[in-house]
Structures are given as structure tokens and as C-alpha cells.
Amino acid sequence: MDFSRGFIRLNWIALVLIYMVVIAGSFVRITGSGMGCPDWPKCFGEWIPPTSAEDLPENYREIYAEKRQKKIVKFCDFLRAIGYDEVAYELENDPSLTLEQAFNVRKTWTEYANRLVGFLSGNALLAAFIWMLIKFRRRKILIPAFINLVLMGIQAWFGSIVVASNLVPWTITVHMFLALVIIGIQLYIIYQISPRSKEGIPLQNWIRILIWVSFGITFYQMFLGTQVREAIDDLVLQGYTREQWVAELGMPFYIHRSFSWLVLILLSIIAWKNEKTDKNPLLRAVFVLLIIELISGILLAYVDMPGLVQTAHLLFASIIFGILTFLLFRLKSVMKVTD
Q1: Which side of the chain, N or C, has fewer Cβ within a 10 Å radius?
Q2: Of 268, 311, 280, which Cα lies nearest the Cα of 293?
Q3: Burial class (CB in 10 A: 0-12, 13-18, 19+), 232
Q4: Domain spans of the chain?
């Protein structure tokens, strides 16, 4: 079955919007705007947030602290139901959850922009699913599209938990995992509906193995990087300087750094082989992006250049993950590979 250009384009737009959510979420993180809207899905009880504290009741901090506490209690009940009693206990006894930040118009509208991008991406997935349901009733794309739509709803709900828990580190890691799963499923749908992707990429078996290994390390690196970032945020709150926290991060930081160089070596071999034979643009792009990713990582670790460099670091890592995922889908379609 041939899919229309408009349908294919809509799914690509949905993918771009999902990546924009990742960028917006990172920007929220680096600006400390995660608590800019204390409630969800509305912001200070409105669909369009206020621009001044004067638009809020005098006791608004107490009001939203109480609402947040109620949401945490419900979430803790859910955690206990699935066997995470210790995590639930830690959340319920976290003193930071009883404190509500003062209104900050810049942080509020930064978080609101993040939610707006999330709303657009969710609606793009919904529109694509409805289109599939009406015109292209193929299980290979309909089931993944439905799963992705459900995951997007869970991601939005879990975003409210991240906010309610005052950005507890492990919730941010789970949030990242869900984002990667959504990206992977959306890429699978694009792979299924795009005629050119079905052509496959014939590669030698040892190159395919290197791509799989690079994918696995990249996937692990993104979670390890999130944990390193969480540890850095904690050290900064404790008053550590950049020179001090590099020494305090310990083994996770060194593993993260070492694995980055390992991926560079693997992809350098793949890129060298690619330039000698196939000259596949995807393999070339992932190598160039990895170089940029390593540069941004060096700037973060050893140069006082945080902020947007953090966003760039996450963005390039996510794109590398996406390209490797798409490559793996295309490699699966190759029936025979000549060694």
C-alpha cells in the first residue's frame, strides 16, 4: 500500500515536534523553570498563565502546596501498589515538597512554552492516528501509533508527577526513558510508511554488529548522562564549584566520558568503511553529530559554558539515538548481506 505524501509528512512533523519537546524540557531544566507552573495541565489554574503575582490570590503558595501534596499522596499509593514502598516513603517524607516557589513570570512562561510544544506534539500524533484509522488500517502502523498515543498521554501525566515531586531525580530519568521510547516508535512508523526506507542498507555483518553496539552504548549513555546531570545539580546546590564537582562525581562521570570515546572509535571505524564503499548519508551524519556531541560534552565538563550547551548536548545525543534506531530498522529489511 502506498501512503500519501501528506500522511508521511505529518508523521515527520510529529517526530520533529517530539524532538522539540526534548529541547524545551532541557531548556526548562537549565533555567530552573520546572516549577514555573505548580499545577497541571493548567498553569496557576488558567489555560493561559498570569503575567504578574498580583493576578494571583495572596495565599497562592499555600493553595498549590496543598494540591501538590494531595497529588504526591495519590502517586505514593500507586508506587506502593506496584511494590515501591521505599520510594513512596522517601517522597512522602521529602521536606522540599511542602515548599512552594514564589511566582516568577519568566519561569512560568518558559514552562508554559514547554507544555504548549507537548500539546502540539500530542495532537500531531492524534491526527496521524485518526488518519491511519480512517484510511490506512494496517496493523503494522496502527498498533504502534496507538501505543505511542497512549505513551504520550502517560508522558504528559508523568510530567505532572515530575513537577509535583519537585523534580526528584529518578522521575526525570523515567521521563527521559519514555521520551526515547516514543521517538523510537515514531521512527518505526516512519520506517514502515516511507518507500525509500524499505530499500534497506546492505552492510557487512561486522559493521552491523558495530552499529548495534554503538546503539546500545548510546542508549545507556543517555541515562548515565541524566544521572551525572542530576548529581551535578545536587553538588551545585551544596555549594561545590565546577573544579570541585568534577572530582566529586566519581565513577559514573568517568564511565560516561570513557563510553563517549568508545562510541567515537566504533563510529570512526564505521565512517571510514562507509566512505570507502557505500557513502551512506545516515552513517556520515551520525559520525559528524557525534563529534559535535563530544565537543559539547568537553565544554560542559571542563569549560564554564553551561546553559544552552546542555540543551545542545542532549539534543545531539537524542538525534544520534534516532539515527542509529532508524539505521537498525533499515538493516532488518536486508535479506542477505555479503561479507
Answers
A1: C
A2: 311
A3: buried
A4: 1-195, 200-339
The Cα–Cα gap between 254 and 259 comes to: 8
The grid coordinates listed for 258 are 570513557
pLDDT at site 199: 67
**Degrees, nearest 5: CA angle 199-201-202:** 115
Q: Is 51 helix (H, G, I), strand (E, B) or coil?
A: coil
Q: Dihedral (C-alpha) 19, 21, 27, 31: value to the nearest 10 degrees?
A: -170
Residues 6+ positions from 148 with CB-CB distance below 8 Å = 125, 182, 185, 186, 189
Report d(CA 59, CA 152) in Å as an integer: 34
pLDDT surpassing 60 at residue 335:
no
Which DSSP symbol is given to 102? P
- Residue 44 · residue 107 · CB < 8 Å: no
Q: 10 Å Cβ neighbour count for 92? A: 14
pTM: 0.80
The helix-helix angle for 251-276 and 281-302 (nearest 10°) equals 150
Joined together, the cell numbers standing for residue 41 give 495541565
Q: At 43, is the secondary structure helix, strand, or coil? A: strand
Q: Tell me, what amino acid is at 246? A: V
Report the interhelical angle of 105-135 vs 139-164 (nearest 10°): 160
Rounded distance between C-alpha atoms, residue 293 and residue 26, angstroms: 15
C-alpha grid cell, residue 214: 554503538
Amino acid at 245: W
**Inter-residue long-range contacts of 237-241, CB under 8 Å, 24+ positions, other chains counted:** none
The answer to whether 219 touches 180, Cβ cutoff 8 Å, is yes
Give the pLDDT of residue 205: 80
